[in-house]
Design a protein that fits this description.
This protein is α/β, with parallel strands linked by helices. The protein has 18 helices and eleven strands. The chain folds into two domains: 2-226, no CATH class; 234-247 and 281-453, 3-Layer(aba) Sandwich (Rossmann fold). The longest helix has 26 residues, at 2-27.
């Protein structure tokens, strides 16, 4: 009898979830793939719905009860769970506070769902929720889980405030999430890659074939675009400005140890071959780092980025022992030019760094100044210029004879437009705080066909 009841509950549960998936897909076709990527798993004791990235687990009694109360709750929670997978929250480290991280993920997903203008997920929002959303919009243009986490962490909330937020935004069971803080698991990495592929395909669908539907889901479209931005190791980005040159170091890679040992055995102290005393390497030799010192740029963020740059450049494998780096500060005119020729000078500059300027913003003086340096033969083989700015200024009309990247020190990256001959670097403020995670620092967006040919 009990077994028959269990089978009946499973059947009813799967029917409810199938109906929810069909209704969501009917309104938002771009969700077809992610919604159908989780198989249904009967699991009494689950807090309503939950996932481990592979299955959608449900407690049938809670599911049926919520369905009787309002079928839209099923649609919303189903979508909420799937969005966690799309944004790969399951696979990201929990930071130092898992409770706050889980809450931040839930708030971010509910914010997206409440921004979808379809009746299949439309549900009246409480005044508390509306006020909270307004505060989020005042702080962030796109409130991602990472940004909300940082905000909540700094609030130092009382237990009562935390509980109120959990009651308002907690929708699903996170206890089934894989432990992202453990050592790398090949199965989990494959699962994360699967959802990354699904997310990118969904983004393509929203950008091309489902424009009308995507217009009613602008918040989702915006956040997916941010999540799927390519991240690059800053060290690799600097290599874009590297040159190939011989360096006076022992080239162990081209050294045949067998012939060396055989010669010692045969002649005593006369090897048949010796290691080469130089090797060809690609490293940074000459580069210009321009800093926008206008009032609209944050001095703290500039310092943070320069410290990250220093961390990369001070490593021996990043640049030659003798370098020619010019760090130029400029607002509407060039304020200073510091030439760096070695690691000691770079360290000294960072130890005593001061911003000079606070005027308006004009990018042209830096390019005019660098062009003059080129005419004066100050550079032998200048490969590129990185300009740290907020983007609010006048760009040169013509392309310079070297690669150029504009780095934007703000989160509203979409408002920043650069000339077609330049590259765009996006630097999130919260990324700058994570000094030990350079890989998450830089997002490189190639802005022209020619720039994309130089992909590294």
């Amino acid at each position: 009898m009990e077994e028959d009841r269990e089978k009946q509950l499973q059947k009813v549960g799967k029917t409810i979830l199938t109906e929810a998936r069909s209704e969501l897909s009917l309104y938002m076709r771009f969700l077809n793939l992610p919604l159908s990527s989780l198989h249904y798993e009967y699991k009494p004791g689950t807090k309503f719905l939950g996932t481990d990235g592979m299955g959608l687990f449900y407690d049938p009694e809670i599911l049926i009860e919520r369905f009787k109360s309002n079928p839209i709750l099923i649609n919303r929670t189903y979508l909420h769970v799937v969005l966690h997978c799309i944004f790969r929250h399951l696979f990201k480290p929990h930071r130092e506070n898992k409770v706050i991280w889980d809450l931040a993920c839930d708030i971010a997903m509910e914010y997206i769902i409440d921004g979808i203008r379809y009746r299949c997920v439309k549900y009246p929002s409480s005044r508390f929720r509306l006020v909270f959303y307004e505060n989020l919009r005042n702080k962030f243009k796109v409130p991602t889980a990472e940004k909300i986490y940082g905000l909540l962490l700094n609030l130092d909330m009382a237990p009562m405030d935390l509980e109120q937020l959990q009651l308002e935004f907690r929708m699903d069971d996170h206890s089934l999430w894989p432990n992202a803080n453990q050592s790398p698991n090949p199965n989990m990495e494959a699962l994360e890659q699967k959802w990354k592929d699904i997310s990118e395909k969904m983004q393509t669908e929203m950008d091309t074939f489902s424009n009308e539907e995507a217009e009613n889901s602008e918040t989702l479209k915006e956040e997916v675009k941010i999540e799927n931005r390519k991240k690059y190791d800053y060290r690799k980005f600097l290599r874009k400005f590297a040159v190939l040159r011989e360096e006076p170091v022992v080239d162990i890679d081209s050294f045949d140890t067998f012939l060396y040992s055989y010669g010692l055995q045969l002649y005593g102290n006369m090897p048949l071959i010796e290691p080469q005393e130089s090797k060809e390497t690609k490293k940074v030799e000459e580069i210009v780092i321009a800093i926008d010192t206008s009032l609209s740029c944050s001095g703290e963020l500039v310092r943070e980025f320069l410290e990250q740059t220093y961390t990369v450049l001070k490593e021996n494998e990043s640049y030659f022992r003798k370098i020619n780096i010019h760090i130029i500060q400029c607002d509407e005119q060039v304020r200073s030019d510091r030439k760096i020729t070695g690691q000691d000078e770079l360290k000294e500059y960072m130890d005593h760094f001061e911003l000079i300027g606070n005027g308006g913003t004009d990018f042209r003086p830096v390019f005019d100044y660098v062009n003059q340096l080129l005419k004066q033969k100050v550079f032998r083989n200048l490969k590129g210029l990185i300009y740290f700015t907020d983007g609010q200024g006048t760009f040169p009309q013509s392309r310079p004879p070297y690669d150029t990247a504009f780095a934007f020190l703000r989160e509203n990256y979409e408002d920043a437009s650069v000339p077609p001959w330049a590259m765009k670097l996006i630097i999130e403020p919260e990324d700058l705080k994570q000094r030990d995670n350079i890989e998450n620092l830089i997002n490189l967006k190639e802005n022209s066909l020619e720039a994309s040919k130089n992909e590294y």
